[in-house]
Design brief:
374 residues, alpha+beta, 5-stranded mixed beta sheet, 17% helix
Length: 374
């Protein structure tokens, strides 16, 4: 009798065993999902790419400028303006680590960038910049500034002594959420990108790692702000075509450049087109022929590691994007420069005029002044 009872009890698994099996199944399922997520993140971030460094021109390394994240060129005067900020030092808590704007004369091949004095001489931590030439011949420079975490846009006039004279300050906490880059329309109108839709660190982390499309493009006209385009994954570099009829926005998370038709009268953007170039596109500059030059991060996770530790290199890449016969961006981009991070790490901008190619990084303490092949 006791033996039969024992067999009956043994034929039915205890309730505890069922729960252990369920917990084990849930754990294994969660582990498999996490592994799949990590592999996808690494794939999307370009970690499995095989890089073959190359450049057909010559390179001159200019040391001393830290974090030259954005560069723009005055093609008429052959002068480059450089936005620089010592980000690693600021991230480490150094309050004396500030930024500056530099000027480089491209007519002097042996020259070095010169610090541009500012009036008033108040501290700035600059990010994206944009040059605008007024109808009266006056040159203006828009500068996105993050001094002490307070986002604003500064408009400077460049006087005959190459000093930056503050003309106007634009601030609006509702729209300047996380401004990254800017492109001028005129002295009172401009577009800028917010690279995140969230203001908090946790929200931004979720946007980055889940590749959420929550960033936008804002249009400011005579002090009035409006959302010109949204639903973008990390809206970064921005620029206008030479005729002002098209606007370009870089999405490094989307690995693409967005192209819009622009109404010159209202600033409204329509006909959104996506050009996928398979890399972490950053700032966009135009040469005198209207070609786009884009500084890129081919391995985004390497860039994140480099942001946390400057000793860990991040590859640098420069793309040239031409236009089709109907004035659209070409579907394929030409890779002009590629380096694994030894020559320069984390290239964010490539500015070209004639044979001059300037490459600037997010963190490195140098820029590259290259000469393109004839």
């Amino acid at each position: 009798m006791e033996g039969n009872k024992g067999m009956q009890n043994g034929s039915k698994p205890p309730e505890r065993s069922k729960w252990l099996r369920r917990i084990l199944w849930l754990f294994l399922s969660a582990a498999a999902l996490m592994a799949a997520f990590v592999v996808k993140l690494m794939y999307d971030g370009g970690e499995f790419k095989s890089l073959k460094p190359h450049f057909a021109g010559t390179v001159r390394m200019i040391d001393g400028i830290i974090g030259a994240e954005d560069i723009t060129i005055d093609h008429q005067k052959q002068v480059a303006y450089i936005s620089a900020d010592d980000r690693h030092s600021r991230m480490a808590g150094r309050t004396d680590a500030l930024g500056a704007i530099y000027r480089l004369d491209l007519n002097d091949l042996s020259g070095n960038p010169q610090l541009m004095p500012r009036e008033p001489d108040t501290p700035i931590t600059p990010h994206g910049i944009s040059l605008f030439k007024g109808t009266d011949g006056q040159d203006y420079l828009y500068v996105i500034d993050h001094f002490q975490g307070s986002h604003r846009i500064l408009l400077y006039a460049i006087n005959d002594g190459n000093q930056l004279m503050l003309v106007n300050t634009f601030q609006d906490a509702q729209f300047l959420i996380s401004p990254n880059d800017i492109v001028a329309v005129d002295q009172q109108s401009f577009y800028f990108t917010n690279d995140h839709g969230s203001q908090g660190k946790l929200g931004r982390m979720f946007e980055d790692y889940l590749q959420l499309s929550r960033s936008n493009v804002v249009f400011c006209n005579q002090g009035q702000y409006s959302i010109a385009a949204d639903g973008i994954a990390y809206a970064n570099g921005i620029n206008l075509s030479a005729d002002g009829k098209r606007l370009y926005v870089a999405s490094p998370m989307g690995k693409c450049v967005l192209e819009f038709q622009r109404d010159s009268a209202t600033g409204r953007l329509t006909d959104r087109q996506v050009r996928n170039y398979g890399t972490g596109v950053d700032n966009i500059e135009l040469d005198e022929h209207g070609n786009l030059w884009v500084g890129c991060h081919p391995k985004l996770l390497s860039f994140i590691r480099h942001a946390g530790d400057s000793s860990r290199p991040s590859p640098s890449q420069v793309l040239r994007v031409g236009q089709t016969s109907d004035q659209r961006l070409e579907a394929e981009a030409e890779e002009v420069y590629l380096d694994e991070g030894q020559q320069i790490s984390a290239s964010s901008v490539a500015a070209v005029s004639g044979r001059h190619l300037l490459i600037g990084p997010v963190f490195d303490k140098k820029i590259l002044w290259c000469q393109l092949p004839e």
